[in-house]
Specification:
Elements (H helix, E strand, L loop, with lengths): L18 H20 L3 E2 L5 E3 L1 H4 L4 H4 L3 E4 L5 E4 L4 H11 L7 E10 L11 E10 L4 H18 L5 E6 L1 H10 L3 H14 L5 H12 L16 H15 L10 H32 L2 E2 L1 H14 L5 H15 L7 E4 L12 E6 L6 E7 L3 H4 L8 E7 H10 L12 E5 L5 H13 L4 E3 L6 H10 L4 E5 L6 E5 L4 E5 L4 H5 L2
Parallel strand pairs: 1-5, 7-9, 13-14, 13-15
Antiparallel strand pairs: 2-4, 3-4, 5-6, 6-12, 7-10, 8-9, 10-11, 11-12, 15-16, 16-17
Helix pairs in contact: 1-5, 1-14, 5-12, 6-10, 7-8, 7-10, 9-10, 11-12
């Protein structure tokens, strides 16, 4: 077979949907958007292609490493969108900054990530979700979380697991340790790896050395403020003089003091990183029923000198969710929940199927993202997104009835070539009156028309003869036929 005639395969990780799957997914999307609009979220659309910098600023290593990026003809670095929250923020900044709050957006569309293809995970997949701008406080968090749960219920998924955390707890601890931004980002990215089977702390420590092998060398002094190292060296030199210690040898005194300073700094940084690791390990132990976990978490945070404001926020969110009739038996607090995105600042959550293995939805609060992407100031914001492919699979696995494909009801055929135009007019008239109609284009004989209709499960065959005032409607299921005006066909087909 020549190269010109060789079949072109689909791209790995990109999913074809047959008519049943496509119809079911379209119905799921429609159901989601209907639910969102019932809660006041208005649908908008953002482009598939965005400036790559939109995602590079705050998306986190997990998503950045899987982005499809390219340079266009104008030399601009662009990306196929890997998620939609940043795109909605960009939309807000471009169009709606002067509108009064709160603003409620709904959206749906494909996104692209270079994932390892497996069941429920593809390189092109569809998201549908909401973003709430200008709503602060636990009532806004609860509205968004309750909307996600209610949407599942409307779809027919009664069994699910809601996991709630608060990424601000780790952010506060990392801020108090004074670690570099690179280390803070690494620890945020690695938080869930610490508790993941087959990984754990040893895996994360090894990965840290691979990613930051030179973080203790002179050339990698991370984020030392201008003048701070010089001041520290001067203080060390003064301390040595006060103690009567003289620096001598082949190396200059300043070089010796600089080496001592860097060793001390590296040692201090190692201790702070280990303290962060211990804290993250402790967070992984704080998971379970809300009341029990929040009580243990207060004592844990006190050990690290941290306040319990995030825990009070979670307690208030739980109280608000109860007002939405969210059954607490569905809910688990998991304080090591990170979501893998750097823009989250506070409450985060995920929804899983009944098995607890497939994540259907994820979201949280991101109060700093608007300003990070060019906004005039920080804006309180919270949202979530569903994965449509995973929702469809969850519906299949739970035995929920999937919407059936709307099959053709009538096959229209001309009995002779002279009736071709009349058959076209009849087919269009039926469509305009709500009948799903297919027109024969191959001028087959009556027997062949019946055979084709039976193979396609089309229940009615309508024969058009331009010499007759009436048309012939054959009921192929009941093996009967009737002559009648075209206007009466609609009533007969619809029963």
């Amino acid at each position: 077979m020549s190269l010109e005639n060789r079949p072109v395969d689909s791209v790995r990780g990109m999913l074809d949907l047959n008519s049943q799957q496509a119809h079911a997914q379209a119905q799921v999307r429609r159901s989601l958007l209907d639910a969102f609009q019932l809660a006041g979220y208005v649908p908008i659309e953002a482009p598939l292609v965005e400036q790559a910098d939109l995602y590079l600023r705050k998306s986190g290593a997990e998503i950045i490493s899987k982005m499809y990026t390219f340079e266009d003809f104008g030399g601009r670095r662009l990306a196929l969108r890997p998620e939609l929250t940043a795109s909605i923020v960009r939309y807000y900044l471009s169009n709606d900054q002067n509108l009064p709050f709160p603003l409620r957006y709904a959206y749906s569309g494909p996104v692209f990530r270079y994932e390892k293809p497996q069941r429920g995970r593809f390189r092109q997949f569809s998201m549908a979700g909401v973003e709430l701008f200008g709503g602060d406080g636990p009532s806004a968090d609860a509205e968004v979380i309750a909307l996600a749960c209610w949407t599942l219920k409307r779809l027919g998924i009664e069994k699910y697991r809601l996991v709630i955390g608060h990424v601000g707890i780790l952010l506060e601890l990392l801020g108090s340790l004074g670690l570099s931004s690179r280390l803070r980002h690494f620890l945020l990215d690695s938080m869930e790896d610490v508790g993941r089977p087959g990984r754990g702390l040893d895996y994360v420590r090894k990965r840290l050395e691979e990613i930051h092998p030179a973080r203790h060398t002179a050339s990698s002094a991370d984020e030392i403020l201008p003048g701070s190292e010089e001041e520290a060296r001067a203080a060390l030199r003064a301390s040595l003089q006060e103690m009567g210690i003289e620096l001598s040898g082949s190396r200059p005194a300043d070089a010796i003091i600089g080496r001592m300073f860097r060793k001390q700094r590296a040692s201090d940084e190692d201790q702070r990183v280990e303290r962060a690791f211990a804290f993250i390990q402790g967070l992984h132990n704080l998971r379970g029923a809300p009341g029990e976990v929040l009580e243990r978490a207060r004592a844990f945070l006190a050990e690290y000198g941290l306040g319990d404001e995030p825990l009070s926020r979670l307690a208030d969110v739980m109280a608000a969710l109860a007002a939405y009739d969210i059954d607490e038996t569905h809910v688990q607090i998991q304080l090591a929940l990170g979501r893998g995105l750097h823009y989250y600042t506070d409450v985060v959550f995920e929804l899983y199927d009944a098995s607890g293995q497939s994540q259907l939805c994820g979201g949280g609060r991101y109060n700093e993202l608007v300003q990070s992407l060019g906004g005039r100031k920080s804006i309180p914001a919270v949202g979530f997104a569903f994965g449509l492919e995973r929702l469809r699979l969850a519906l299949e696995e739970q035995g929920a009835p999937l919407p059936a494909v709307l099959e053709t009801q009538v096959l229209v055929a001309a009995v002779s070539s002279s009736a071709t135009h009349a058959s076209m007019q009849a087919a269009q008239w039926l469509r305009e009156h709500g009948i799903r109609t297919e027109l024969d284009l191959r001028e087959r004989a009556a027997r062949a028309q019946i055979s084709y209709a039976n193979r396609r499960s089309i229940p009615f065959l309508l024969l058009i003869d331009d010499r007759e005032e009436h048309v012939i409607l054959r009921n192929l299921v009941e093996a009967s036929e009737v002559s009648l005006p075209l206007e009466e066909v609609v009533q007969v087909v619809n029963g």
